[in-house]
Amino acid sequence: MHAARDHSPLIERSKREVLLQAAPMVERTVQAACGAIEEAERGARSVARRLQLGDAHAALLRHAPRLRAEFPRVLMQGVERALRQEADAEPQRESEREASVLALLDDIEVARFVEASRLQQSAMPVIERSLGVLDSLMSSVLGLPVVRADLNPFRPDVFCAALLQVLEAQLEAPEVRGHWIRHMGRPFAAEMHALYEALNTMLAAHGVEEARYRLRLVDGGGGGGGSGRLGGSDSGEASDADAVAGGTGAGGHAATGAGLAGGATDGLALMDGSGARGSGRGGRRRSFVPRMEQLSQAKPAVDAGVIRDFLYQPQWIEAHDEPLPQGYYDAVEAEMKALVRRPEAGFDTLAYEQEQERRRSQDVMERSAPRVGVDRPLPPDEWGEWGSARARTDTLMRLKAQAARISQVLGLDAVRALINQVA
Hints:
By secondary structure, the chain is mainly α. 59% of the residues lie in helices and 2% in strands. The protein has helices at 8-43, 47-83, 94-99, 107-141, 156-168, 174-205, 238-245, 292-295, 304-312, 316-320, 326-341, 349-360, 380-383, 389-402, 406-422, and strands spanning 268-271, 287-290. Helix 4 runs antiparallel to helix 5.
């Protein structure tokens, strides 16, 4: 196994290849998106939608030269940040954390988060195979004995973030940019696939061999990790998070699955697009939406399918988002009172120190990922008051009490579920 520094020329060669292809790939993406918008414009049934699509098409043509010029620079900045990822991975100290402000995302930030997730997930079926190979080759180039998809500096979230950044920099209405993103997703995925294939060919030609994937067998095929306990009890929410993200593609990148298992309707209200319960004969398709007593819980009680629709279905917010009723705030207040009466698991310092000593005795790349979760206590000397799971939950409930719309609460629950999955 070679050290990463021995392969730095291949990293630089890969960066030059990406930089060389960045402008043409975004140019072809824009051309394909313009064609798709034109086709959608011709098929639009309402005058208002035709005008909206026409404006989006004209604006995209107008901004195309700037997109071509700016995308390579922004993309390479993202690649450089990804290469520095390990160096920047040190946790914030208490003084730094206290300086940050916890607040609800506003509507613009919610929309940005949803668009980024949707863009990456729409690309995964197209790039999954070539990305899996690139993840393993790039892990070898970095000197890693096993595949670490999260350290691939050319992973899809880097490309998607760069594209969204240059699109958001254009002075157009969010609705116009939304049309751009929806119609650019498919051609952009095809361009990423072609670039990944070119990188794979180049690396293979230089004798790079694929790193191994580490396989971990778990009892029952469930989504949890090992059975050990450290510093408190497990939350048991990992299976919910797995359902949110669907299956996992090669290289460990989440990809949407084919759907949820039966019984997903428990505790949900079946509503039509107008928000009325009943037969669903309205103009919009029926969809599962959460009840207020589910939204008010500290642990995510909303079905994973609802969170997935919220994240990845473009029409969900438009069809179902609405102001929260008074009953929701009453339920939040009751949940906060109930939390005060629940016992809190303390941090087990001895078990933590023993686990740290065991990990230090292992080779760095053979260490398993630390067991963390939203309901697990953290070392108080490193995290201060945020080491307490109760303190973090209290902050969550205060944010839920400040929420004004369903989408804001679903955003909080989505983050809480996905933290367990990523962890």
